[in-house]
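Hey everyone, long-time lurker, first post.

I ran two proteins through the pipeline my lab uses and got sequence/structure pairs for each. Pasting them in order. The first:
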Amino acid sequence: MAYIPVDPNCQSIECALAESEQRFQQMAEMTGEWLWEQDPNGFYIYSSIAAKQILGFSEDELIGKHYTELLTPEDKNKQQFYSASHKPFYSLINRYRHKDGHQVLTESTGLPIFNLNGELIKWRGVDRDITARKTAEEQIHQAQIELAVAQREIKIAQQIQSTLLPRAPITNSQFEIAGLCLPADQVGGDYFDYFYRNQNCLDMVIADVSGHAIGPALFMVETRGIIRSQAHNSFTPAATLELLNAFLFDDLNRSDYFISLFHLQYNTLTKQLCYANAGHPPPILFNSINKTCTRLDAEGMIIGVRNQMVFQEKCLGLASGDVILLYTDGITEIENPEGEFFGISRLENTLLENYQQSAQIIIEVLLNQAKQFNQYRPFRDDVTLLVFKCL
C-alpha cells in the first residue's frame, strides 16, 4: 500500500483557515449582527446565531427557508428587485416578521458571490437590528412634529393675546395713559387694560394670574372678557371685582390658579379716582403738590379664594401732574446676580426722578432700569406696567 505524504505547508494553511474561520465566527457572535448566506435562489444556507436574538429563529430553522418568508408583505417586492439585479446592496432597510409576530427592522448589506465563469453561486450578507434606533427616530420625528404644531399654536395664541391689550397709549387734554406687558414665555398671565365706561369715566385694570404660559393666559382672556362685558353698566370697581370673583371662582378653584387684580375708575369731569384691590401689589401715587410717593391700597383678597367676597372701595381727588404707576410683582421681584430684588423703592425713586416725563417715557425708563439691574438676562416672570398721568 502506498501513502501520499502530506505537505506540512498544506497543514499550516488549513490550520490558518480554520483559525480564521473560528475567529470570524467569534467576532460575528460578539457583534450581535446576523451573518447569513443564501444560495442563488435566495434560500438560506448559513445563518449565525444572532438570528435567534434578532428574529427568534434558530440556525436550523432558517436553513432552507427562502428569505421572502421572513419579510413583511410590503418588503417582499423590494427585496426581490435587489436579488434579481445581482448587484450589491448597502444599508437596505428590511422589515422582518419576528417568530412571535412583531415587526423587526434591520439594516442589511449583501454581496453577490460569483465563480470564475461569472456565475452567481451565492449571496453573503449581514443584518443589523435597528428596531430600537428606528423607534427612537420615529419618536423624535413625531415629537418634532408635535413641537412644531405647539409652537405654531403658541404663536397664534401670542398674536391673539397681543390684540387683546390696548392698541396704543391715550393722550388728550385731561390725561395720559400707557401700558406695557412682557410675558416671560411666549404667552403670559399678566394683563392690563383701559377703556371708557362712558364719555366721562375711564376704567383701568392690571392683573396677574399665578404662573405663566398657556394656562394663566387663558384665564387672562376670560378675565378681560368678563370685565369688558359689563362695561356698559355703571358698576363701581368694588362691584366689578365681586362680579368677577363670582364668575371665575369655580374655574379657578378647579385649576389651582388665582388672580390678583387692581381696578380703578377715573372721572374726567371731577378728577375723582375710585379704586378697589383684589390682593394685588398697591399702585404708587406720585403727588405733584408735595412731590412725594404714596401707595394706593384697599382691603380685598385675591380672586378665586372664596365664592362670595366683599371688596373695599376708596376714592380720592387727583391734581394736575399726579402720576399713578401700576405694576405686577414680575418687576419688583427681579433679582440681580447678588440676589438683591429690584423692589418697590426703585419704582418710587424712578417716578420721583421722571414724573415730568410722559407716561410712555416713564415706562421706557423703568424697563431700561430693570434690564440693567438684571444685567440684560431674560426676565423670569411676566412684567407689566401701567402709567396714568393727570394733566
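...and the second, right after it:
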Amino acid sequence: MKPFLKLAQGFCLVFVVLAHPPAALAAENGPSLTVSAFHEGLLSVMKQAEALGPKGRYEKLAPRIEKSFHLALMAQVSASSFWRKATDKQQKSLITAFSHLSISTYASQFDGYSGQSFVTRGEAPGPQNTVLVKTQILDPGSSPVDITYVTRQIKDHWRILDVLLDNGISELAVRRSEYRRILKTGGIDGLI
C-alpha cells in the first residue's frame, strides 16, 4: 500500500506543478528579466561596436530586439487609425519597416562603449495590465539617464511595448507623431 501512496503523492505533485505554469513562467521570465536580457545584449554589442561596424551591430541586435520587444504591436500603435485601413500585405510591410528602423536606431545610437552600465531600479504597475520596469543607464562622468520600459505579458513571455526616456518621452508617441503627417498625405504605402 505504501508504494501506491508514494506514487499517488508523486502524481499529485506533478499535477500541482503543471496546473500553475504561468506563475512559474512569470518568475523565470518576468518583466525585469526581459529588460535585463536586452541590456546584456546591448552592452555586449556596445563593447564590440567598433569591430562589428554598423551592419554587424544590426545583425547582433536584431534577434535580441525581436525577442524583447513586441515590434508588431508597436508598429500598429505607431500607425494609429491607419492600421485598420491597411491591407494584410501593407500591415506586414509596415511591421518589417518598423522593425528595421527600430533595430537600425539602436545599432546607430549604441556605437561604442566607455564604461556604461544599466541598473534596474524596480518595477511598478502600469496602465492596461502593463508593468513598468524602471532602469537607468550610468555613464561615467555624466548624470544617470532614466529609462522606463513599458512591458506586458503576452502569451507566456514578457515583451517591451514602449520605452520612456527621462520619465516622460515615449518612443511610441514620438513615432506616432512623426508618422502622422506622412500617413495623412501618403497613407501606409507612403510610410513604408
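Reply from user beta_strand_b:
Welcome! Quick read of the second one: Strands lie at 117-125, 131-138, 145-154, 157-165, 169-170. Residues 49 and 112 are 5 Å apart (CA to CA).
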